[in-house]
Amino acid sequence: MFRHTMLFLGYELGNVRRNPVWPLFGILQPVLYLLLFAPLLTGMVPGGTLVDALRIFTPGAMMMIALFGSLFTGFSMINETRNGVLERLAVSQAWRPAIILGRVMKDMLVLVLQALLVMGVAVLMGLRLPLPALGLMLLLMAATGLFAASLSYGLALAIRDENGMSQLVQFFALPLTLLAGMMLPVSLGPEWLQTAARFNPLYYSVEAGRSLFAGDLSDSTVPVAFGVFLVLGALSLAWSVRSLRKLAG
Amino acid sequence: MIIEAHGLRKTFTARRGRGRTEEVEAVRGIDLSVGEGEIFAVLGPNGAGKTTTVRMLATFTAPTAGTARVAGHDVVKEAAKVRERIGYVSQAGGVDDNAPGRESLLLSARLSGLSRSQAHARADELLETFSLTEIADRPVRSLSGGQKRRFALAIGLANRPPLVFLDEPTTGLDPQNRANLWDEVRSLRDQGTSVLLTTHYLDEADALCDRLIIVDHGLIVAEGTPDRLKQEVAGDVVTLRLDDLAAAGELLNAQPYIKETRPEDDCLRAYLDDGEHNLPALLRALEAGGMAIRSISLDRATLDDVFLRHTGRSLRDAA
After folding, report:
1. Inter-chain contact A85–B96, Cβ cutoff 8 Å?
2. pTM (2 d.p.)
3. I need a surface site. Which of A113, A135, A240, B199 has the fewest CB within 10 A?
4. Where does the sequence pass through the membrane (chain A) (predicted)?
């Protein structure tokens, strides 16, 4: 089982290695936000410097890659429901969960690498972070990626239509971004907005990211975020594996 | 017997909008047995249930009813054991377009349990067999239809299966590539691999298979070797164009050497043995009956005549 997962992971990473351009495009958006949007915040944050603004804004920008990258990763699988690849794998000796799990692990790894690059830009702009906070942040990115990618594959297998999937993900992307407080902390808003945000899983990762970047590693938001994503990740993974089984009708 | 299936049925529930559903009986009871080392064809028009039948035998789709043992194991209860012993090449091919073919081949070989070096050896061997070595490292999307099909076949053989399923293996291929693929399927049999293929091409079933079933609307309408099935109809067929098909049919049915006549579109097909010798008598009979023949041709009976006899329509029109 583990061997098959690693084989699929290796195969998928091979595809990424041959075409490394797309993940680089993926970080363009958060990097632009860091360069062009974070300076606008300097007047609004406590402290009033660019570094203070980055400390609050960078975790949100990193979660954007999870949202706009990993949540779209399932598109590749819609094609595979038609071109016979999944059909072939389903009757091969492959352990079925490995088909999804290998891909999800690839997405998690790509996400962590993208997060490192975004953090690198923030460091170049003057942000300084202790190593444990950095490590935990990368793990948090991986946990977020586990959820977002599994959900995306589940959606792809359930919808099996590029147009439908694109509409659905686009429809949810903006409210999820705003209600996670990616741009500005939700705590600046009214009570109802803060309540609504609690139903958005990404809110927890952004909050935990801000705690980590503030150097507050033992803040309760951190274990809560890991807990939320491990549970949701496991559920969406189980759902996508089940959808894979139902492919045959 | 490498495949033994009894009473296979598959009913799909299709959504028809507004919560209404409709039961679609894709396969309505198929019995078949395939011997080891045999090339077995499932011939039928589109929508006859060929693909569903293969998918049930290859453990992709669970049958609604009936049982099947493939390579010694039950397709439902021992699906994992069946999967170790089969290769499956779907109609769509199932080759990853974005990666080089070699990568897909290596992945399949390793999933079947080979070590890294064994997998490389197996991949090289298959690439050589199917003349793919030179294009093995190009992304599959840049290859031609025939090359993709050869990759699909090679990937299906990565685990050295004693049985291979080929679903419509030559659909969309040009005549040259079709002929090449036929040769490759024959050489599989020569190495002792059993092959079950589906096709809607009469000539393909005729040229390639040892035995076949003809299916229509999810049921078997005929079964046997191509030669025996054609003999059941007759050795030869005379196709006539004339004005009064019904009268001509009646007149010919009264002739002792005519086995059967069948109108088809604007022609009459008369089945008979030893056509070369009986043709003059047939011409005389029509002339005596005052029938003006617009055209006439004598051919060997084909599997289409078998299909026509059992279903009342031509396979060419049935799609």
Report:
1. yes
2. 0.89
3. A135
4. 21-44, 56-78, 108-127, 133-156, 168-188, 222-241
